[in-house]
TrEMBL record, chain B:
One of its GO terms (biological process) is piRNA processing. InterPro entries: Hen1, SAM-dependent_MTases_sf. Its EC number is 2.1.1.386. This is Small RNA 2'-O-methyltransferase. It comes from Melopsittacus undulatus (Budgerigar). PANTHER family: HEN1, SMALL RNA 2'-O-METHYLTRANSFERASE. GO terms for cellular component: cytoplasm; nucleus. The lineage of its organism: Eukaryota, Metazoa, Chordata, Craniata, Vertebrata.
Length: 714, 377
C-alpha cells in the first residue's frame, strides 16, 4: 500500500514491517489514505518521522549490501553461495574436468575511515561433470571399494544444483534410495523425485537407479519452536561439485589449477578496477547506487602503512640477519640449532624393497647432521617383508614394546599412502606414544643434491619432534606466556571439531606444551579451555618455578560473527583458569587471528603495484572501530597477492601498547620451525593448527600425554 | 480425463463455505496447462503477455524446444524485481542446453503493436484480459491475432459463475479486475475474435467445480486458439518498438565455444575410459597384478549397474586402440562411434575440427594420444 504513494514517498524505500527507511526527509507526521486491495476497505497510514540516520549508520549497512548485490546482478554476475561469479568467462581445464570461474566477493562495510566497498577478486573451481559422472569414474577406477571411495571423495564437498541457485554441503549418501522414491511436498502431496523434477523444472532424470545425496541443514527452529530435522536429498545427476576434491589435494592437478588462479598484485588490482569501471559505465548499475545516494570512488583506497623493524634470528652460536624476503633457509642448515637432541636410540622402519634407499638415507643423515649440531648414532633397522599396513603395525608395536628407550621412529613408506600414514601415526601418537617421522620414498628419490636438502629438512623436523629448539628471536617481554589456539572442523560423519591448544614454556618462546580437545558440533567450549590453560600454567610453573606475569592468547579460526562467542564463553573460561592459582592475576591479552577477510595490500613503491615488504602493518582507516584491530603482513609471498592477517584485540589487561602487540606478533611469525622464514600467522597458531589437523583428521583421538612437551605433530 | 481423476482426488470440499482451495494451487495448474501445451506442440518462439513476476516464463525456460522467450507487462516494477530469475543459472554454463535460448522482457502495453512481438509460435495471455481497460480490450484482438498472428494463442480468465463458490469474493476476485466473464460471455467473445482473424478455438479450463455442480464450469476458463491458415501477407503496420528491459542469452551448444568444450570433454573422457580398459587388459595378459591386493579382496558389493554406463561399448571398442611404448593411441573414428560424441558433432569432420589444438593428437591427427602414466601423481 505504501507503494501507491510514490508521489509523496518517492520510489525508493525499504520497509521491514514497522520501520520505513527513505532517502528523503518527510514532514514530522504524515497521514495517508489508501484502499486495501483484498477487501476494498479504507486504511489510514500514519508515518512518524523518528530519526535521521547517518549515511554510515549501522542500520543502513544491510541496505547498502542489498543494493550492491542488485548492482552485481545488473552486471550479469551469477550468485553462487555468497559470492558473484562469471561462468561465461570460465577457464576450462579439460583433462581434469574442471572449470575455474572468476568472481568477486563484495560487501559494504563501515571502517574507521568511513564506508568502504570491500572487494576481492576470487575464483571458484567447479567440476564440469555431474556427480553421477564423477561417481561413474570412481566406479571404473575402484569397483571393489566403490561406496567407500564415493563417501571419501564426496562427503564434505559443496555442490550446486542444475535447477536453482543454491549450494549445499554433502553430509552423506543414501544408497538405498533412488529418484523413484517419494517425498512429501509442503502442500502434503506425495511425489517421486523424478516426477517432481520433471513437473517443477521440466528436467527428465535419465538414470533412475542412482543413489541420493544427503544434505543436513543446520538445525533451525520452526516457527513453533520445534527443531526441524529436515533432510535435503539431491540427485547426483543434477548436482555438480565445487572446489577441488579433498583427496586430490596433491598432484599436478592442484598445481595447475592454482597456477590459473594466481594473480600478481597488479593483476588483482586490474580486476578490481575493471569492476569499478563496469559499474561506472553501466547506467543501470550507477542509477541503482544513486537511488540510495551511494557514490563509488573511481579508484581503490590509498593509505599509509608502516614496516616493523627487522628481527635478527638467533642460533646457538650467534645471530644472523635474514635476507630481504625474510628467510634464512641456508643459515639453518649450516649453523647449529639452539639445542639439538642426540639421536642415540632410534628406529628406522622400511620395507625390504627400499633397502638401498634406507641405506642412502642414513648416509645422508650422517653427513648433514654435523653442521646443524645434531649427533646421530646408527639406527636400529626394522626391515619389513612387505609394505602392508598390518606388517608395519605389527613390527613397530613389537619393537616399541620390547624396548622402552626408543627416542624416535623414522618410517619410509612407498608412495603417498594416506591409510598407512594414518595407521603409523595412530600407533605412535596414541597407542604407544613416541615421536615419529614418516617419509615417502618418492620424496627421497632423485638427485643426490635434492636428497641432501630433503634430509636436512627432515633432520631439523626430527630435532623439533625430539624436543630440540631450532632458532629464536629476541623477546624483551619478561615472564611471558604465549598461547595459540585453532579449531579443525571435520566434515566426516561424526562431525566433531577439534581444538588444538599450544602454550610457550620458556622465556625465549622455544618450548611448547600442547593439548587437544574434541567437542561435539554446536557445543559451547565447555570446561576444556579452562583445563588446558590451567595445565599449561602448571607445566610452566614446574619448568620455571614461577607463573607468567603476562599471557598473550592468539585465537585462530574465528569469523566476525563468532567474535561474540569468544568474548562471552572463551575469555571467561581463560580467566577462570587463572583462579586455579592462589592470588594470581596476570595480565591477559586475547587476539583473534583472521586469515580470510578479503583485504589485500599492495605497495606503490614502484611504478607497478607490488606486494608490500613483510612486516607491513596498517592499523588505521581500513580497521574496524569496534575493536582494536590491525593488519600485519608477516610473510613474503613469492607468487600471487599479499593477503595480510587481521588481528583483533578483544582483551588487554596486560598494559601492552598496540606497538608492543604488533611487534610481538611479528616476532612470533618468525618462530614456525617448519619454515625457515616468516609465516602468515604467529607460530603458536601454526602449531595449534597442525596439532588440531593431526588429531582431527588423522588420529581421531587425543594424542598420548607423554608427547605434550614436544612438537611431535610437525 | 487424466486431470479429472487427479482433481477428484485432490478436490477439497467443505460443508459451509462450499469450497476452499485447489491442490496444486490454481496458478500452478494454469502454468502446467501451458507447459503441457508447449510439450505437445514444441513451439520455438513463445511470448507471455502480462508476465507479471515472470513465474510462467521461468518454468518455460526449462523447455528444450523454445529458442525465444519473451515477456510483456505494463507494470515495470514487479517485472524488474523478479527478472533475475530468468538469468542463466551457473550450471547452465557447465551443461549448456542443446538449442539456443534468448529471454527478453519488455515493459509496455499489450495493446501496442510492438515489432519485437512478431514471429511467435505461441502467445499466452494467462489471467490477463480481465485486467484490461475497455479501450485496451478493444484493441487487444487486433494486436494479438491480427498483428502478432502466432499459430497458437492461449487465453485464460476467471469464470464468474464459479465466484459464489469462492469464499470472500464479493464482486471480482481481484481489485484490479475490470470485469469477470461468465462462460457464455467469454466464449462468445472468443468465437467472435477467432472468426474475425481466421482462428479456430477450443474451450477448456482448470479448477474443476465440485461434484454435482458441473454446470458452473472450470474456475479458470481457457480458450486455445489455433490459426487456420499459415499467414500469407504481413498485416498491419507496426508501432514504435519498445526497449527490452531485460535480455539474457543462454549458453548453448549452438555456440561454437560451448560445443567445443562439450566435445573435447566427451572425447577426453571417452579416451580415458578406453585407455583404462586397454591397460587393464594388457596387465592381465602379461600376468602382472600390480593392483593393491587389499582393494581386490574387499567385500563384495551389489553390482551397481548405473555406474558402468558405457562399459560394454568401450570394452569392445578398445580393441581398435593400441599401446606403443608409453603412449596409447585411440583412433578418432573409434571415439566418433560413441553415441554421445556422435550426437554432439554430427560429422567426423566437425569432430576433427573441434578437437584440433585442444587434445593431443597423433602426427596425422587420426588418433588421440594419452600417456600410459596416471594423469595425476
Amino acid at each position: 500500500m505504501l507503494k501507491e504513494h510514490q508521489a509523496v514517498l518517492g520510489d525508493v524505500m525499504a520497509f521491514d514491517g514497522s520501520i520505513l527507511f527513505l532517502p528523503i526527509q518527510l514532514p514530522q507526521l504524515l497521514t495517508l489514505r489508501v484502499q486495501r486491495r483484498s477487501d476494498g476497505q479504507d486504511v489510514t497510514i500514519s508515518i512518524q518521522s523518528t530519526k535521521v540516520l547517518e549515511p554510515s549508520s549501522d542500520l543502513c549497512i544491510p541496505f547498502y549490501n542489498v543494493v550492491f548485490r542488485r548492482v552485481m546482478r545488473l552486471l550479469d554476475m551469477q550468485l553462487v553461495g555468497r559470492n558473484f561469479f562469471e561462468p561465461s568467462q570460465a577457464l576450462v581445464l579439460q583433462q581434469y574436468r574442471l572449470q575455474v570461474w572468476p568472481g568477486y566477493t563484495v560487501s559494504i562495510r563501515k571502517k574507521d575511515g568511513g564506508l568502504f566497498l570491500l572487494v576481492d577478486a576470487i575464483h571458484k573451481v567447479i567440476r564440469s561433470e555431474s556427480i553421477l559422472s564423477f561417481m561413474r569414474s570412481i566406479y571404473r577406477q575402484s569397483p571393489g571399494s566403490f561406496q567407500e571411495e564415493c563417501m571419501k571423495q564426496l562427503v564434505g564437498s559443496v555442490v550446486i544444483t542444475r535447477y536453482n541457485n543454491r549450494t549445499y554441503r554433502l553430509h552423506d549418501i543414501d544408497w538405498s534410495k533412488t529418484p523413484q522414491d517419494t517425498f512429501t511436498l509442503a502442500s502434503g502431496e506425495v511425489v517421486t523425485f523424478s516426477s517432481y523434477y520433471s513437473k517443477t523444472y521440466g528436467i527428465t532424470i535419465k538414470e533412475l537407479e542412482q543413489p541420493l545425496l544427503i544434505h543436513r541443514p543446520k538445525e533451525k527452529l520452526s516457527p513453533e519452536g520445534k527443531p526441524r530435522l529436515d533432510l535435503v536429498l539431491l540427485v547426483p545427476e543434477l548436482t555438480f561439485m565445487t572446489g577441488i576434491p579433498e583427496l586430490r589435494k596433491d598432484s599436478r592437478m592442484l598445481r595447475e589449477v592454482m597456477e590459473t588462479m594466481r594473480q600478481s598484485p597488479q593483476q588483482h588490482y586490474q580486476r578490481l578496477s575493471s569492476l569499478l569501471q563496469r559499474i561506472r559505465s553501466s547506467t543501470e548499475a550507477s542509477r541503482e547506487l544513486q537511488r540510495w545516494g551511494l557514490l563509488l570512488e573511481p579508484d581503490i583506497h590509498r593509505t599509509q602503512g608502516r614496516v616493523l623493524p627487522m628481527e635478527r634470528i638467533n642460533l646457538r652460536h650467534g645471530s644472523i640477519t635474514p635476507s630481504e624476503d625474510l628467510s634464512w633457509a641456508k643459515a639453518v642448515v649450516r649453523e647449529a640449532s639452539i639445542s639439538a637432541i642426540s639421536m642415540n636410540y632410534w628406529l628406522l622402519v622400511y620395507p625390504w624393497r627400499l633397502q638401498s634407499l634406507a641405506k642412502d638415507l642414513v648416509c645422508a643423515m650422517e653427513s648433514v647432521c654435523g653442521p646443524i649440531g645434531m649427533r646421530l648414532s646408527r639406527p636400529v633397522l626394522l626391515e619389513l617383508q612387505d609394505d602392508r599396513i598390518e606388517t608395519y603395525a605389527r613390527s613397530i608395536r613389537s619393537a616399541l614394546s620390547s624396548e622402552e628407550k626408543v627416542q624416535i621412529l623414522l618410517c619410509i613408506i612407498s608412495g603417498s599412502r594416506e591409510d598407512l600414514y594414518a595407521a603409523i601415526k595412530k600407533l605412535c601418537c596414541v597407542q604407544c606414544p613416541v615421536p615419529s617421522q614418516v617419509l615417502s620414498a618418492q620424496t627421497l628419490s632423485g638427485q643426490p643434491a635434492k636428497l641432501r636438502s630433503v634430509v636436512q629438512k627432515v633432520l631439523l623436523q626430527m630435532n623439533c619432534k625430539l624436543g630440540g629448539e631450532l632458532w629464536g628471536v629476541d623477546i624483551p617481554l619478561k615472564q611471558l606466556m604465549v598461547v595459540g589456539m585453532d579449531v579443525h572442523h571435520s566434515h566426516s560423519r561424526d562431525m566433531r571439531s577439534v581444538i588444538g591448544f599450544v602454550a610457550s614454556m620458556n622465556p625465549i618462546l622455544t618450548r611448547w606444551y600442547s593439548r587437544v580437545v574434541f567437542q561435539m558440533p554446536h557445543q559451547e567450549i565447555a570446561d576444556s579451555l579452562r583445563l588446558c590453560l590451567a595445565d599449561a600454567l602448571q607445566h610452566f610453573h614446574e619448568m620455571n618455578h614461577c607463573l607468567p606475569r603476562k599471557i598473550v592468547v592468539f585465537r585462530d579460526g574465528v569469523s566476525d560473527s563468532q567474535l561474540d562467542t569468544v568474548l562471552r564463553y572463551e575469555i571467561p573460561q581463560l580467566q577462570k583458569a587463572l583462579d586455579t592459582f592462589e592470588s594470581y592475576t596476570p595480565g591477559l591479552v586475547v587476539l583473534v587471528v583472521q586469515k580470510q577477510h578479503s583485504t589485500n595490500l599492495y605497495t606503490l613503491a614502484t611504478e607497478q603495484l607490488t606486494a608490500p615488504p613483510p612486516g607491513t602493518v596498517i592499523d588505521h582507516t581500513v580497521t574496524s572501530s569496534q575493536g582494536q584491530d590491525f593488519f600485519l603482513l608477516a610473510h613474503h609471498s613469492r607468487q600471487g597477492c599479499s593477503i595480510p592477517t587481521r588481528y583483533i584485540c578483544l582483551l588487554n589487561t596486560a598494559n601492552l601498547s598496540c606497538e608492543h602487540i604488533q611487534r610481538l606478533t611479528f616476532k612470533l611469525c618468525h618462530l614456525y620451525w617448519n619454515w625457515p622464514g616468516t609465516v602468515r600467522v604467529p607460530a603458536p597458531c601454526g602449531y595449534a593448527h597442525r596439532l588440531a589437523f593431526l588429531a582431527g583428521h588423522i588420529l581421531h583421538h587425543e594424542p598420548g600425554a607423554q608427547l605434550c612437551d614436544k612438537l611431535f605433530f610437525l | 480425463a487424466l486431470t479429472e481423476n487427479i482433481m477428484d482426488k485432490n478436490f477439497k470440499e467443505e460443508k459451509f463455505t462450499g469450497f476452499t482451495k485447489f491442490t496444486p494451487p490454481l496458478y500452478r495448474q494454469r502454468y502446467q496447462f501451458v507447459k503441457d501445451l508447449v510439450g505437445k506442440y514444441k513451439p520455438k518462439k513463445v511470448a507471455d503477455l502480462g508476465c507479471a513476476d515472470c513465474k510462467l516464463l521461468c518454468m518455460l525456460k526449462f523447455c528444450g524446444c523454445i529458442e525465444v522467450l519473451a515477456g510483456v507487462d505494463i507494470c515495470g516494477s514487479v517485472m524488474k524485481e523478479k527478472m533475475h530469475r530468468l538469468s542463466p543459472l551457473p550450471v547452465d554454463y557447465l551443461q549448456p542446453r542443446e538449442g539456443s535460448l534468448t529471454v527478453t522482457l519488455h515493459h509496455g502495453s499489450v495493446a501496442h503493436k510492438d515489432p519485437c512481438m512478431l514471429g511467435f509460435d505461441l502467445v499466452t495471455c494467462i489471467e490477463l484480459i480481465e485486467h484490461l481497460e475497455e479501450s485496451e480490450l478493444k484493441k487487444f484482438p487486433e494486436v494479438v491475432f491480427g498483428f502478432m498472428a502466432p499459430s497458437r494463442v492461449v487465453i485464460s480468465t476467471p469464470n464468474s459463475e464459479f465466484n459464489p463458490l469462492l469464499p470472500g469474493v464479493k464482486l471480482f476476485r481481484n481489485q484490479d479486475h475490470k470485469f469477470e466473464w461468465t462462460q457464455l460471455q467469454f466464449q462468445s467473445w472468443a468465437l467472435e475474435t477467432a472468426k474475425c482473424y481466421g482462428y479456430s478455438v477450443e474451450f477448456t479450463g482448470v479448477g474443476h467445480p465440485p461434484r454435482g455442480m458441473e454446470n458452473v464450469g472450470f474456475c479458470t476458463q481457457i480458450g486455445v486458439f489455433v490459426k487456420k491458415y499459415p499467414q500469407t501477407s504481413v498485416s498491419t503496420q507496426s508501432e514504435k518498438p519498445t526497449e527490452a528491459v531485460f535480455k539474457a542469452v543462454y549458453p548453448s551448444l549452438k555456440d561454437e565455444k560451448y560445443l567445443q568444450n562439450a566435445v573435447v570433454r566427451e572425447v577426453i573422457s571417452t579416451a580415458q575410459i578406453i585407455k583404462e580398459i586397454l591397460l587393464n587388459r594388457l596387465m592381465l595378459e602379461h600376468g602382472e597384478y600390480n593392483d593393491d591386493p587389499t582393494e581386490r579382496k574387499s567385500k563384495f558389493q551389489p553390482s551397481v549397474n548405473c555406474f558402468s554406463d558405457i562399459g560394454k561399448l568401450a570394452v569392445e571398442k578398445s580393441k581398435e586402440s593400441f599401446v606403443s611404448g608409453n603412449v596409447v593411441y585411440i583412433p578418432l573414428t573409434t571415439i566418433f562411434s560413441f553415441p554421445r560424441v556422435n550426437r554432439l558433432c554430427g560429422t567426423y569432420e566437425k569432430l576433427s575440427k573441434l578437437v584440433a589444438g585442444q587434445v593431443t593428437l597423433s602426427s596425422d591427427s587420426s588418433a588421440v594420444i594419452l600417456n600410459t602414466e596416471p594423469e595425476d601423481s
